[in-house]
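The aim of this short unit is practical: by the end, you should be able to scan a pair of folded records and say something sensible about each. We start with the first protein, listed as its amino acid sequence and then its structure tokens.
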Amino acid sequence: MAILRYIARRLVMLIPVLLGITLAAFLLGHLAPGDPVDDVLFSLGVEFPTETDRAEMREQLGLDKPLPVQYLCWLGNVLRGDLGRSYANNREIAGELLRRLPVTLEVSLAALLVAVVFGVGGGVVMAAFHGTWVDSLLKGISTLLLSVPGFWLALFLITVFAEQLGWLPTSGLDRGIASLILPAVALSAANIGSTSRVTRGNIIQQLGEQYIVVANAKGLSQKAVVLGHAFRNSLVPIITLIGNYFGGILGGSTIIEQIFAIPGLGSYVLAAIHNRDYPVIQGYVLITGATFVLITLVIDLLYLAADPKIRIQGGEA
């Protein structure tokens, strides 16, 4: 029951956060430079609109109303699942975003999986071989991964593994898992470097605690001490770090999707920015923000599973 109360309270606390995201998404479209009325008229073939044309289109789009009224109308439509229509092609934005969202999530989750496997795994190995050449080598690799820009690494991977060796496809997702390897590696490289260093630091810190001395005195193997005790007690900060990385991966996938010609949210919003298609940008900010908020809720719940010392008292973990 305590866990259910905690989950219910966390869900209630998300309501003002989601409202804040809707307000930020709405204001982003209105604070952006340019007049969307001119863009819509131009897309309709009106190259030299008159003031009458602008006034009629402004009324048709509902932009003649006060800003608070526009926000409430837009929010009401959002709650009904209506994000409006694109200025560029007059298609429903909600349907297009929902069609592309699974593609972006697929790429982002693949990148997150790579970051977890190699970042956390590398950090455990570095901690286990602390002070040896293995530790120094992996620290050097992690520093290199942190220093390389993602877009440059993406182009390098395409040149080597797709163009020269021909092992992997250069673009698209038509070859299943093979199509995800290069985008996932390019998107997660910096996260691998930082995750491995944080994991290493936390495990080494735990290895200096008193309970580790007791575990060693009992004759436990080094593997059991590192994995069964030190690593397990380092999970909470590692989970927090990985959860925060997911938000960065979700937003950072925009450039990677463009490079690898992946039909996800990134390519859609880049085209919207180029065309000053503000409703699409608003919908993108809303969808990605809401997705990240839900991920943070999952992370909060993972704390309870990762660390039994966490007690729920008064709705706070």
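Turning to the second protein, read its sequence before its tokens, just as you did above.
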Amino acid sequence: MKDNVWLTYSDEDRQELNALAERYKAFLSTCKTERECTAFFRKEAENAGYEDLNDRIASGTPLKEGDRIYAVWMNKTIALFQIGSEPLSNGMNILCAHIDSPRLDIKQVPLYEDTELAYLDTHYYGGIKKYQWVTIPLALHGVVAKKDGSVINVSIGEDPQDPVVYITDLLIHLAGQQMGKKASEVVTGENLDVLIGSTPLDPSEKSSKDESSASDKNSEEYSADNHKDDETAKKVKEKVKANILRILKEKYDIEEDDFISAEIEVVPAGPARDCGLDRSMIAGYGHDDRVCAYPSFEAMLDAGSAGRTFCCLLVDKEEIGSVGATGMESMFFENTVAELVVLTGYDSNLAVRRTLARSRMLSSDVSAAYDPAYAEAFEKKNAAYFGKGLVINKYTGARGKSGSNDANAEYLGRLRAIFDDNKVAFQTAELGKVDFGGGGTIAFIAALYGMEVVDSGVAVLSMHAPCEIISKADLYEAKKGYVAFLKNA
């Protein structure tokens, strides 16, 4: 087993480590959806001198060495490129991670009332232990697209003055039958409904909009109209639901039918925080896989220049199989590379194929950290550990390597040399014991182009839980490793 990397750090290393950890915590606390991540990276990229690919396409200005370009797709996926001195067809050095995380999604027809309590119906996204999502403070993040084309951003539950929402659980005093169920059945997916209100609509309550308009009307006419509204309100059967709809309309200009064209995610409320009395770890939601996405992005900004073109690709939908228009299986990345090829003076399918086939990628995704409380699930010699640095997974998949990329030995030898030469602490691991299960990443999708690709990332405790834990040292070594890869692969 390798030494704990904390023992090797100088005071300067620790200062850099802590500064990176603070920046990452701020990002993790603010960016809890793929849309929020994409908006953050886009803004930071523009501040660093990156130009929108669409603007370059419109102007027709050729790309040259040193140009920094980004492309965004559907506000959920972003690719960044720094053009090198070598022809693009020589291939790129690519850092790839995903920015979606397990969560609950609000359904298209979600709002209902039951015994004077109002709820939002949800559908869980990605692999979760459903019982972990009850009795914790939750927030609502997302967008609502109106019929007129306007888009309303929603973020409720993060500001200390905001209310939170909540999923109930059965009290222990009445849970005899529940406690006898398998863990997968203790809480069902259809029971993950979010409690959002309990106050009935008051017939005498008028909205601020109604109040302001009263001065513009004849007082007798307004009184008569308002009386009719009061009578209507008294006849409403689901008064708590009606009150929630009133609040949504007044505060956010959202009506019930607007949920049809909404993407609202239920995520744990609150910021990421230091964990441990020694502050050596970070506890927060969404480490999988933003703990790889964030240092990949910073590595792009800090790597300087080299012969090959650099790329940072941050994608959506990995947690549900990388499907859809914003997942790795979409044509977004290939189409974007084709646009770059044209802007560098070539216009052929063969040039695109050569660029992709000759590229090298770190498919950066998290790995399961060894947990002594559940030692039976791990094989110690081939497990990832806190404080041992960046994790390399030659293969992932399930049981008999099903669905894995299984990187070739020559590529791993090259990476070993890069990391050792640049004093990057790294370790190798598998995702638990062979027959215990497994998981997949996007590596096999990138490998379809023929490029060299291997899984790498940061070890995580309690992966896919609403609150996960990582080591600050491993975050620091990941960024160092990503910079070394971009400059030397």
